[in-house]
Design brief:
The chain is α/β, with parallel strands linked by helices. The protein is built from 14 helices and 13 strands. Strand 2, helix 4 and strand 3 form a beta-alpha-beta unit.
């Protein structure tokens, strides 16, 4: 096994026991990036020299005999680990482009975002900034190919982060989630994606799409890895007005073992299994039965206020996004992609009354969800209703003859967690006949990340995840050091 193939937890153990150096790991991941980028285009910027410098510093800090070096057991599991950040997340000295021509000449960031600073303090090595659907306003990330089939969509808007992790071109990555932008690409690329409780992970220094819906969270190869990252990311920051007080004594890393005795898993009788591809439904229901086999009790639940989900999502996101971009939209509208510009211009036509009605609906929906979650520990459902479509496909036709846009289909099942602010975890649960990954979503009560991660980890231990996507590397193609 090559170092780039290691999960975060496995790489951390190799570094802790000094069987692998941070320099070796970073070099392996950078070589993997060089080999996979011609096919996938996951990265906006590769920060190779920065990553190598961080790796050398991590190695020196823990080398035996180094004056003042801590014992190997005293530094955290992210020490020396290569990370990629969605290109909405500020890193001092690196431009934040948001994958947009609007920021083609944007100056480099003057300071780290909160999450970048916390990762740096934990000893990570930044290997690059990953593509997003322009300003995170979309569900496909058109610049980037799916890790399992570059001719299919990567999902979005954190498509570059998901693809980098799936292809082992990053040990882990961060993304943002406003309507599903962590979980959708996680499901479509067969990796783990966690949208934390709203306000748990600070957003200071992260370009906003919709401030009342934006979340920052990890994309990883395993649930255990996501828990390790959350242990570093979570915590109050007064610079983010939505930041929550730090919950005391939270242990995110699940204990070994797959016993779910006493855990109540809600299975929706409505909404989440409506207009879902049959292969996705079979895989997710099979995963739910696996949770039952591990000791969980299955409880049917009725999802409340489903008819208002998409209207509320768009009623909040569209005007907030337009407000954020108002000045640039007036001065340089031609610099936006056509799909983004039309959405931003539509936001200018929405009334204050429309926006306030969406806010009221969100409040009522959140209250209804909290009542529903009183009766279960998690809800298990499909992350998205269909797997990755071919690039250029815009409409999906369901067996009953109805149709919807691919973007609406992808956001439909992920939006409720953003509206209500509850934590939601996507875990891989199989592949369809074309070999494309299928994801199951686990949703929990606010600040119940530990429970959501416990259930996801139990499933993962019972049904181990596959290795990295087998990206086709051109014969004789780039493979040297970056």
């Amino acid at each position: 096994m090559q170092p780039y193939e290691l999960t975060l937890a496995a790489a951390a153990e190799e570094i802790r026991t000094r069987r692998l150096s941070p320099v070796e790991l970073v070099d392996s991941v950078l070589d993997r990036i060089a080999r996979t980028e011609p096919s996938l285009q996951a990265y906006v910027t590769v920060t190779a020299e920065r990553a190598r410098a961080s790796a050398r510093a991590a190695e020196r800090a823990t080398a035996p005999g180094t004056p003042g070096a801590p014992a190997a057991s005293s530094y955290g599991p992210l020490h020396g680990i290569p990370v990629a950040l969605k290109d909405l997340i500020d890193v001092a000295g690196v431009a934040t482009t948001a994958s947009s021509r609007v920021r083609a000449d944007h100056p480099v960031a003057a300071a780290d975002s909160t999450v970048a600073a916390r990762l740096a303090e934990a000893g990570t090595a930044l290997v690059g900034k990953t593509h997003t659907h322009e300003f995170a306003y979309g569900l496909t990330t058109p610049q980037t190919g799916n890790a399992w089939d570059p001719g299919r969509v990567a999902g979005g808007s954190s498509g570059g982060s998901a693809v980098a992790v799936a292809a082992a071109a990053a040990t882990f990555a961060l993304g943002t989630d406003t309507g599903g932008s962590i979980r959708v690409p996680a499901a479509l690329n067969g990796v783990v994606g966690l949208k934390p409780t709203y306000g748990l992970v600070p957003r200071h220094g992260v370009t906003s799409l919709s401030w009342s819906l934006d979340h920052v969270g990890p994309l990883t190869r395993t649930v255990e890895d996501a828990a390790l990252v959350m242990s570093v990311l979570a915590g109050h920051d007064p610079r983010d007005p939505a930041s929550l007080p730090t919950p005391p004594g939270v242990e995110y890393r699940p204990l070994p073992g797959a016993d779910l005795t006493g855990v109540r898993v809600g299975v929706p009788r409505n909404y989440y299994f409506e207009h879902v591809d049959p292969e996705v439904e079979v895989a997710v229901r099979g995963a739910v039965k696996q949770l039952e086999a591990l000791g969980a009790t299955l409880v049917e639940v009725e999802i409340p206020m489903t008819r208002y989900v998409q209207a509320t999502q768009w009623g909040l996101m569209v005007p907030e996004a337009t407000a954020y971009h108002e000045q640039t939209l007036r001065s340089a509208p031609e610099q936006y992609g056509a799909d983004i510009r039309v959405l931003l211009e539509a936001g200018a036509l929405m009334s204050a009354g429309d926006y306030l009605r969406a806010q009221r609906a969100r409040t009522l929906m959140r209250q209804a969800w909290l009542r529903m979650l009183d009766d279960v520990d998690v809800i298990a459902a499909p992350t998205v209703p269909l797997t990755a479509v071919r690039t250029g496909q815009e409409v999906v036709v369901w067996p009953d003859g109805t149709s919807e846009s691919v973007s609406d289909a992808y956001v439909r099942l992920s939006a409720p967690a953003d509206i209500t602010g509850v934590p939601a975890l996507s875990v891989p649960v199989g592949r369809d006949a074309a070999g494309m990954p299928i994801g199951m979503q686990l949703l929990g009560r606010p600040l119940a990340e530990a429970m959501v991660l416990r259930v996801g980890h139990a499933y993962e231990e019972a049904v181990p995840a596959r290795g990295p996507a087998p990206v086709t590397v051109p014969a004789g193609g780039p493979g040297g050091a970056l």
